[in-house]
Design goal:
eight-stranded antiparallel beta sheet; 50% strand; mainly beta; 121 residues; 1 helix; 7% helix
């Protein structure tokens, strides 16, 4: 990793534009942790890639916006309004705005989350 990549990650800024990358390789697994990196962050929405170590989770939350989750490595449990959806590599799901959701890792996995901030007040 060069110093520019490291400084971008420390600031939480977007990834460099017009540069090809392998999405599954831009974030690593860290034991006992959930790690996230911003791909694009705008006032109208954002795209984030995250890695979850086995046994980790994001607690129940609500979002004012639809969120699309796509699994890019491993498998995950996505709970929406109490219903568990077991997603595997290549699968995705939309978490509707204003619905409770949580994400948990029985095994390590990586995902892309896309939030579109429009259509809701």
């Amino acid at each position: 990793m060069n110093s520019k990549d490291k400084s971008d990650r420390e600031r939480g800024s977007e990834m460099e534009k017009e540069k090809a990358h392998i999405i599954v390789e831009i974030i690593e697994y860290i034991p006992h942790a959930v790690v996230s990196r911003t791909i694009i962050k705008k006032s109208t929405g954002n795209i984030t890639v995250s890695s979850f170590a086995a046994g980790e989770e994001l607690a129940q939350k609500y979002s004012a916006f639809d969120t699309y989750i796509q699994i890019i490595d491993g498998a995950a449990d996505i709970t929406i309004d109490g219903k568990i959806h077991k997603l595997k590599l290549g699968e995705g799901i939309i978490i509707p705005a204003h619905k409770s959701s949580s994400i948990s890792a029985e095994e390590q996995f990586k995902m892309i989350s896309t939030v579109i901030k429009s259509g809701y007040e």
